[in-house]
Every structure is written in structure tokens, then in C-alpha cells.
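In the previous chapter we treated chains in isolation. Here, by contrast, the input contains two separate entities that must be folded as one system, with a combined length of 227 residues.
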Amino acid sequence: AQSVTQLDSHVSVSEGTPVLLRCNYSSSYSPSLFWYVQHPNKGLQLLLKYTSAATLVKGINGFEAEFKKSETSFHLTKPSAHMSDAAEYFCVVSDKGGSYIPTFGRGTSLIVHP
Amino acid sequence: DAGITQSPRHKVTETGTPVTLRCHQTENHRYMYWYRQDPGHGLRLIHYSYGVKDTDKGEVSDGYSVSRSKTEDFLLTLESATSSQTSVYFCAIRGQGEGSGYTFGSGTRLTVV
């Protein structure tokens, strides 16, 4: 069965420093992978998705992620954090074996200090 | 979010009462999902639908039922609400084609007292 593990429940960075949110996945098929962001008391917004095309995926607001099959990873990065990036981030996997039902990680809370 | 709305946005109900949450889409998408969000658990699947009258259970389906009589509406019913069902509920739709993303509604915050 497909699954996803977000390796950090909280990540704390200073404004202007790089962001790294880690995600490992498990899938017996060619997975689709997504990162979603949720600001406090808001819904979920798609940041970026990987669907078997280019392994380096660029998303909105300067975020990008790299699909590494050998490491079963899909880490989210951003070169320079902004205060507005403070939010909850979810890594999501779906594949044919799971009937394309999205399976969520438990989330990583990104804290940005001034 | 464009194309998908949830109602109500907030609800407080008493233990033991039935509650129905509605998800409405204007995209004519086949797949619809209900999730609940709780701190430390991410989003967990309650039920999903792959067409009119076609539904199946997710990992946390106990105490919940769903119905889909029209493509555009997916209803989630708590048959007899309990305090453990206090949560934020999200509906989602899946776009057409393999690798399509998922669009989420704005959520319903349900409190069972």
C-alpha cells in the first residue's frame, strides 16, 4: 500500500534562510506526489506536483521539490524563507495500486522567525 | 476554492444527534473524497466516491455514512455524533486524467458537545 512519511513534525528557520521539508514515500507503482500548504484556519492549496515528467518540479511562491526514486524521497525546498511561508505543509502520494486515493503525511509545521 | 464548496462552514451539535455535511462541485468530476483533519494525524480518509451511487470506505469510516445521488453532491452523515467526531472535515475532488491534482473545499469545523 502507498504511504508517506514526513520526517519532521516542526521545522524552524529564520527569515531569509533556506527551507527544507523532508518527505519519504512508499509505492509499488509509479506514484504521483504532491505538496500542499495550509495556512492557519484555511483550506489546502496545491504547491506543486510530480507526475512522472521532470524530476525537479517548480511550484508557486518559489518552492520546488525533487523526485528521487533511488531514495524514495520528495523533499520540498525554498532558497529563502519569508514570514508568509509560516504554515502547515503536507506531502501526499497517490498511485494506481491505491486507486489514486491521496494519502497524506502527518504534516510539517514551518515556523519562520524574524 | 473554485468549483467546490462545503456547507455548513461551522456547526455545533449535541452528542447523539445526526449531522449531515454537504460537498458540492461544479466540475463534473467523478472522484470525490471526505477527510477529517486532527492535530498530529494529517488528513485521514473517511469515505470516497468513484461515481454516482458508487462509494467505498476509508481508514476511519466507523460512525460515518455517505451518499452520492448526483455527480455534483457528496453528503457525509454522522449517524449519531460523538465527541470524538469533533474535527475539521474536508471534501476533495480529483481532476481528470492520471496524475491530476486534487482540489479541496474550505472545510467544515464540527464541534460535538
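Residues 64 and 78 of chain B are 5 Å apart (CA to CA). Chain B touches chain A at residues 1, 31, 33, 35, 40-45, 48, 50, 58, 90, 92, 94, 98-99, 101-107 (CB under 8 Å). Compare these points with the single-chain example from earlier in the chapter.
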